[in-house]
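hi! just following up on the protien thing from before. the input was this:
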Amino acid sequence: MFAPHAHLSPASRSHFTRRRFLRDLSMYSAAGAAGLGLGGSLPFGAALAADAQGMRKRGKAMIVLWMAGAPSQMETFSPKPDHTNGGGTETIQTAIPGVEFAAGWEKMAAAAGDLAVIRSMTNNEGNHQRASYQLHTGYSPTGSVRHPSVASGIVQQIAPEEFNLPASVTIGNGGNNLANIGGGFLGVQYDPLTVPRAGQLPSDVRPAQGELNERRVRSRLSLMNKLDSSFAARGGGRVVENHREIYQQAGNLMLDPNLDVFTLDDEPQEVKDSYGDSEFGRGCLLARRLVESGVTYVEVRMGGWDTHDDNFERVKNNASQVDPAFSTLIADLKSRGLLDDTLVLWTGEFGRTPKVNARGGRDHFPKAFNSVLAGGGVRGGQVIGSTTADGMAVEDRPVKVDDLLRSCCHALGVDADHEHMSPLGRPLRVVDKGEVVQELFS
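and the predicted 3d structure came back as:
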């Protein structure tokens, strides 16, 4: 197994965080469940329902590293050095014997013992907006319903109930195709808080010095609720409910003593440097801070992967930012005892064409691409699936989007078959189809 960076020493046993408290509490919760005879005697969904509160206590979390625009599999984790489609990309050995990554990913290659690389991802959606929607909701977009994100289903089932910080946070501006993806018909309370720039407090979240105290904030929220009541009584109930929810969440966040978790001022400079001097690197560092503080779902977005032209130079530049940030995030979570309970997923919406176009770029290619997972009970040090020698098709162990999302739910203890009633009166599951990729956990 890959050893964490030397300068990221394990957290002190006396270092108290909400996440550490929840994780320690889970040991007693698990022991209690065993004493009640719940050890595998129930079907998966029934066991989840029986232990729902226990799931909330375990402090499970997920970090998604979203590569908006679709990264080339050939220049990341599925190179083809022995074929003309490989484009001349050089390869490097990884910590997994016999497995190579593309050059430029040296730190990730060293961390490969903690990674599960799926080289056989496949899909039918080759449009950015449609594929991004599907990767985030488990459904193809329709004009009749705005589906809740899978993040919403995760937060609904396992996020702590009494928690002022947002249960779901999105970091970065990459991914314009995801602007309307959030709670969907579940409501605005499941929309993520968006933080455009890591290291800065969310806009207008802190009142001017001395202007408001907690009593006045609560008083104003109460007055607003009274003013809304008459409108709600005249048929605006759902609008008022969403309005109140937004302001209540904002008020709670303003008053939360842990608000400084969004800044990076108290982080040692050597830790900041290890993540890299980039927006994405700071986003990954903030993601670690958030899950350590008890946030359930964090997505860090990075754009610039739609490489229809100048593919090789653009991917090289992107890799120089992602490689140190991604590898350090894994090492940092591991050194702090958080990796076992935190699932990390690196992916984009699809892949790029194996054949290089006339502009030195690669075009949209959903038939075969790669995703990478770590932590959360996933067995590292393995590659799942493969593509043909020319990269044009999946050769072994195809993994569909539904399979990937269902596997993420499984890792977090989330019931992917849980049904939500849509506004059209149709029950919709958290993830509609698919099967758990058992190799990830065996």
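The CA atoms of residues 221 and 247 lie 7 Å apart.
The chain has three domains: 14-54, 60-200+263-440, 202-255.
cheers
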